[in-house]
Amino acid sequence: MIIHEAISVPYLCVSSTKNIFFNPEQQQCPENAQSMILLLSRQDDGSTALVIEWLIALRKKYIRVNSDTNRMKFVSFDIDKEELIIEQNGVRVNLAEVNSTWYRRRGFSMENISIEDTTLSKAVFRNNSHYHKTHMQSELKVMIEFIHAFVEGRSTKQIGNHSSVEVNKLKVLEAAKRCGLKIPQSFIVTTKADLVNIINTYNDVITKAISGQGVYFFTQTHHYYSYTEKIGLEQAAELPDTFFPSLFQTQIKKKYELRIFYLRGECYTMAIFSQGDKKTEVDFRKYNTKKPNRFVPYKLPAGIEQKLTKLMNELNLDTGSIDIIVDRNNEYYFLEVNPIGQFSMTSVPCNYYLEKKIAELL
Amino acid sequence: MNPVRLAGHTGDYLTLYADCFLVQGHTRTMICDVSRKKMFFISNAYHELLLELKTKTIGEVGDMLEDQSDFEEFEQFANYLISHELGFITDNIECFPPIDLVWDSPYSITNAIIDIREKRLNFEKIFLELEQLNCPYVQIRAYSVLSPEQLQSILLCTAATDFKHMQFLLKFPQSFSIEPYSQLVQQYKMISLQFHSVPGADFEQLKGSYPYSDISFIRQEIDSCAGCGVINSESFTLYSLHGFIENIRFNGCLNRKISIDENGDICNCPSMAKKHGNIDNTYLKDVMAKEEFQVYWHINKDEVAVCKDCEYRYICTDCRAYLTDPGNLYSKPLKCNYNPYTAKWNNQ
Ligand code: SF4
Ligand code: SF4
């Protein structure tokens, strides 16, 4: 956790059309000293560091909590005094001061507030460590939920939220369709016969993970899929007759792919040209370093923007990273939304200053 | 890849990718591929063609050409752009806006130069003030020898700072041993050391002997700030889109820079005649907020004589201290020998 006391320095703002000299009168009022921004992130997240640079420039006070360290400790909670004290790197903070929260990642984790595991198993449940683990985990879950409710309840400003950081891909696809967006034909099947049937009907079929998180085990032989993979009759032949329920979609003949960072009704869109290159033809995340893809700003048709806004409202998301494919007939196919998606990869090449916009909203 | 036949695309548009910028010079135009960091040169006639293509379809532009051979050249040019992945043909050009040239930085000062010779500067005060200005990059140029102990005493003053990188330009001492310096770069992860004025024999012996990039050696003799400001093809920078846009809009060298010369005087850069008070009794934040100080930040190359006709102007860092006409703030850098009217370097 880093607490940064806002320092008062002249801050020069440059608009896109005119050069404005720094003028002390135009300085923004420093935020109320009692207010604090809570950044829920991970240690490795570069975007958080960039947003923090802007928070410092805007003289806003913040505290960053990374879900992947155990350096943060829960200390105490006092209902009467309305004090929820946590400690990180020896500094104690009252989370009641938080009035703005950003869910860059998932939020508080078990790792954050649990006490050292082995000590406890030795001390308390000497002969049934499994029991204590499950018990502790359900206790911690309640605690974590409460801390989220506590800070969210006090946050007058908030980006992202705890309850919708994880979305169900299948529900999202269904909702997208309801909002009037086109989606690829999607099937979940469990038998080779059904899959072969689909491939014979649609020719170009891909498979991807159903759950949001990357890699999952797919065949009995040797395939792990973290990227979207094309699947043909040959690959299908390698499969056992029945397999784990898997998602298959018809492959869209893409002109280019769009990555949209959605933030409070605004779509910051970037086109990704990767078709020229076999390596990235199916999923641009298989990056080609020799000839990097082109990333350029893109203006979505108003109709598509409206449908996306409707979808995000329906999913109760105020921010997220959306993937769309544009096919050769200029049809837009919605693929998925990631509520805690990367945005610097869109912000930097398109010069969108999303890090600054987020810092301003917090 | 098969060549593209324009006849099949008369209703479409030919456009550059937004990260490929056109920079028109007097004799030729540069296409600056900012993402892939490559330069391409085309004739100004093609530059005009590309401007037409912003609003007209391939067919409409084709109709403006005089005869068949012109159209073939057009087709060849289109294929040149497409095969180098500088441009593409599209039927929905309205979806491809240019990159907005807005520029901003969370750092009120982005970089600082501090020169040292004999006078001991108050580094504690300097670093603290730079930290308060949120300055991420600091360069320290020493014209007299700094012993490892002296260097360490300067580094001790960085304790409360969070600089991203500090570059030291150090005078090569007469009896040199790398150990104490390599210990310092290990201890202070954000620093790098470059030794200047390295004698030929030592240079031959040292070059390649130290495996990391945080200590390096150059032969160039640097005995004052007067060595700065040289512009040649090596001094061009194409670092990032953010930097490129800054260079289009602002001064490539002096924007959001603050410096302290060897006497402790505060200035845009040590080579500038105008000083803005001494660090002993002046706050950096008061100097940087002065309109008079910021004037240089805003002089971009579109405003500088000769440079405004140069196709290199958005990757050229500029120099406002050494001018061809010292009386004219907007005259060409003195130490540049490129002539954009002939597209030739005059190498003395
Ligand atoms: S203005 Fe010229 S002399 Fe000053 S730092 Fe820049 S290049 Fe060097
Ligand atoms: S003429 Fe101006 S812009 Fe061109 S290289 Fe020389 S200094 Fe740079």
Automatic annotation (TrEMBL), chain B:
<dbReference type="Pfam" id="PF13186">
    <property type="entry name" value="SPASM"/>
</dbReference>
<dbReference type="InterPro" id="IPR026497">
    <property type="entry name" value="GRASP-with-SPASM"/>
</dbReference>
<dbReference type="InterPro" id="IPR023885">
    <property type="entry name" value="4Fe4S-binding_SPASM_dom"/>
</dbReference>
<feature type="domain" description="4Fe4S-binding SPASM">
    <location>
        <begin position="255"/>
        <end position="311"/>
    </location>
</feature>
<dbReference type="InterPro" id="IPR013785">
    <property type="entry name" value="Aldolase_TIM"/>
</dbReference>
<protein>
    <submittedName>
        <fullName>Grasp-with-spasm system SPASM domain peptide maturase</fullName>
    </submittedName>
</protein>
<dbReference type="InterPro" id="IPR058240">
    <property type="entry name" value="rSAM_sf"/>
</dbReference>
